[in-house]
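User: Just a sanity check before I run the rest of the batch. Below are the structure tokens for the first item. I only need the designed sequence back.
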């Protein structure tokens, strides 16, 4: 069911969301679970799709809140922005009443696609370059977009810390943040920093929604962001801390492969709701005392 806008709700959707993959479309269409409040897709996978799949997708977007999480914007690329794609995207977002468009603060192309998310150098020059491109995207789409803090495994040309780079880009571009809690955890292990200190430095007013996912343990000091496993307890704990700091925020479960049966996915959706309900109760208690 689509969200009705309310003055006291700063978010354009609510609750717990799920990434919509083709493998799970039919079972979801047959019996849509009430605990899934919104869905997310990569627009590149659906722009121009017709036939039976296109009609089924249209049925979903007519009945449920949707966000789009892009794959190919390549905001940090040295190549020019693909403005032809952005105009197609603008029509797609409007046609399906998509609530928000987000992308990765990384790059994945130059003359061709690299099929991976590459780290943008944490430099002053890169801040200005990327922020200018984000502003251009927002001008074309005529709406704010959210950039995601990404996992990375090397930091070429690093002149500042990741969190300082992220915050500088958000401020200069005047865009929103897709806060990926699993990426904070993965990066904190791989690059040896305190995830709670990182979290405390996030600009609360820019958070649009949250991603949570599983990852692969390559070694004790190397985690790989895969979206192909269950969420682990330390990541759930970090989500809990996020709500404690910033209140309850719409949160989406990402699962891109090794996708389990729907009931198992819903167990993790239920965990999101349980943590959200805990902090909603805290907020209600404080409101009553006040």
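Assistant: Here's the designed sequence for the first item:
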């Amino acid at each position: 069911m689509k969200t009705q806008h309310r003055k006291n709700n700063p978010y354009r959707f609510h609750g717990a969301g799920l990434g919509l993959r083709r493998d799970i479309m039919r079972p979801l269409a047959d019996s849509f679970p009430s605990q899934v409040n919104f869905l997310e897709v990569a627009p590149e996978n659906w722009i121009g799709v017709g036939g039976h799949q296109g009609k089924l997708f249209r049925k979903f977007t007519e009945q449920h809140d949707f966000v789009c999480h892009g794959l190919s914007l390549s905001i940090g690329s040295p190549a020019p922005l693909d403005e032809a794609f952005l105009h197609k995207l603008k029509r797609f977002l409007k046609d399906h009443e998509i609530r928000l468009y987000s992308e990765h603060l990384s790059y994945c192309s130059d003359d061709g696609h690299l099929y991976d998310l590459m780290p943008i150098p944490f430099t002053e020059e890169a801040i200005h370059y990327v922020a200018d491109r984000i502003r251009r995207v927002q001008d074309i789409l005529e709406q704010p977009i959210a950039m995601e803090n990404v996992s990375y495994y090397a930091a070429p040309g690093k002149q500042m810390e990741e969190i300082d780079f992220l915050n500088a880009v958000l401020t200069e571009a005047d865009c929103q943040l897709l806060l990926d809690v699993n990426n904070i955890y993965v990066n904190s292990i791989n690059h040896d920093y305190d995830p709670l200190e990182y979290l405390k430095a996030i600009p609360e007013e820019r958070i649009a929604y949250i991603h949570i996912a599983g990852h692969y343990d390559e070694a004790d000091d190397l985690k790989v962001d895969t979206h192909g496993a269950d969420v682990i307890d330390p990541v759930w704990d970090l989500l809990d801390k996020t709500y404690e700091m910033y209140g309850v925020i719409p949160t989406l479960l990402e699962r891109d492969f090794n996708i389990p049966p729907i009931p198992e996915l819903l167990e993790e959706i239920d965990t999101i709701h349980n943590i959200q309900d805990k902090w909603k109760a805290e907020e209600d208690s404080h409101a009553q005392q006040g």
